[in-house]
Write a structure and sequence with these properties.
The chain is of the alpha+beta class. Helices cover 32% and strands 15% of the residues. α3 crosses α6 and α4 packs across α6.
Amino acid sequence: ALPRSFFSSSRSGRNGRRTAAELDARKTADRGARAMVKLGQPGGDAPTAPKEDAAFGAFAALERERTFASANDPIRSVLQHSKSHPRMLESNATSHVWPLGALAELLDNAQDQECGATEVHVDVVNVAPGVPAITVQDDGVGMARANLHCMLSFGFSSKEHVVGNVGRFGIGFKSGSMRLANDALILTRREGQASVALLSTTFLNAIDADDILIPMFTWKVDESGGSGRRSYIADEPSNTTEWEENMAVIEEYTFLKSEAAVLEELDKIDTKTGTRIVLFNLKQPSEFDFEHDQSDIRMRGIEDDVETARMSSRRPVYQQHRPGQQMTLDVPEDYSLRAYIEVLYLRPTVTFTLRGEKIVPRSAIERLAVEYYQFDAYTPKGVPEERASPIIVHCGYAEVKSKHCGFHIYNKNRLIRMYQRYGSQLQANAMMKDMLGVVEADCLEPTHNKQAFNTTDIAYTKCQRHIEQCMNDYYFGVQKIRLAGLGSGNKRRHPAKQKAAKNNAKKKSASKKERSQRATSFGSDDDTDEEPWEENDDPKGGLNAKRNTTARAKARVDPFPRLLRKLMRNKNSWAFNEPVDAEYWGVPDYYERISTPMDFGTIATQLDNGDYRTEGSAHGPLKFVTDVRQVFYNAWTYNQPGHQVYGFAQDLARIFETDLAKIVGENDEWGLLVGNTMSMAGPAPEPERRKSAPDGGGGGGGGG
């Protein structure tokens, strides 16, 4: 191996003094110094030191003066070289908190258009018995020696603002690979040339280096021989001694113990050109589970002890934090690499294979199969010209009901945020809790780890405001399958839908008499003059009584949707807007004690399906009223007086019974007021009574 004194750089001469023995050691090692490539000087081998300073080699102290290749600039001949300490690799890797996000950095390089890849294979191999390593291999055009050196250097990126490329900072490979492993071996082959380089913190720490050194080899590839066999001819370093000294590093600090083994690993690139990356000496303790699913790479649980680990119904929970999301919600993309890659790119350009099995992409847009709607493109003002591009918002619902909601936000085809919630999705209610969306936002600026956005950027603020506006327009004006759109007429519809509705209204030729008859019938489509809610027995009689009755009847058209919507919008309704999650709330005996579970969300679904609509019959209204009261009775049965949920049920029961009494009036011919829950609800709290005193009523106002 190379002499340790050579790699120790200037540590022994902190005061600028070097002993004769140290100088002799450095003179002896100078041959190998010229053979090693220094990270941070792309475009070939490191420049050769001046002859008068040869004793200190290519890795002398920072105070040494260097003569650069571009000596035509007189200033550069006296500039100092700024080193990158090996600790830079570790500190740079800390930007990745989530290991799967670090692994995705390696996939991004293959996805970029200059790579030219059509297939990417991710696999797990054993470099020694019981010692796993992760490999990423593509069939792209490969890299020349200079390109490989740039990839291993910091900040050398030509991808910024290139259409279709997500890379920008030139640190993705270094931060991602060093987050997962201590060592990374890169093998690449292009037409006529093949190169191998080692980025190893194990090697750098062992020699106590104060600069980042990279052993790198290049061969000329001759494929003119018969039977398709390739021959490799050593090219760089050209000096045999230098080649052997570099190879000694590979043999000592990797799992390849000879040049023949290196070439055998290089031949595992089974296409004419391509790149293979091997991450070995994975970080310990291991964060990955390679055994649970042989076709996947999964995250381990937070704790190995199953009894004390935080569990969902199927597995230990390992979940990224997202505002508004339940901590027990199962999000496969958080712990399964296969599930994550399926949605990683909005429109994949390559085919991914994980551990020998092809990955079938799941289009985030195609998932919005129910009530899908795409909003017009919006380009925020004040964005730099190089990032000026439109924001496109897609909204909809999934065919299979789940507790997932929020938006997948893509930047340059790459997923940055998953299930990001906005607006009402962050509040304790049931509104928009199953709405899904996709945002294409190429104008936003991702953070270094590509897992978040720069929230201080004006473009992000405008994008967030635009998304929330689209959510409201969609929920209250576009979609028709949720309760929000019922009973609101055209007032809250999306402008495009509102215009279409107005045009359709002009084409209708129903007479005033027919419209009046429909308005006076509740829950019925028949054209009769009956008023099932109230008879014309006003003691004042005459024309005024008829006018008052008609006005009240029109005001009572379909009151149930408005009444239910008022309950669900109440700040205390969050506990009743969806079925009780017994596991999440820690009440495993809930469904044993409650034989007839009911919630406002289920009632809203039944209302959407027309289950409470009957013709000239009390069955539908009675069923609606009974179901709402069942919600309150369940809360009072399971919880004790004084409990928060018990009090919430009392508050909502007072609102419901008060508004129902106003709707029904004095003539309750269908018996909707029978079984009134006001006795259980009790009197309104003192502040509530004072607030409602001018109206002379209890808590709660009129019907929606």
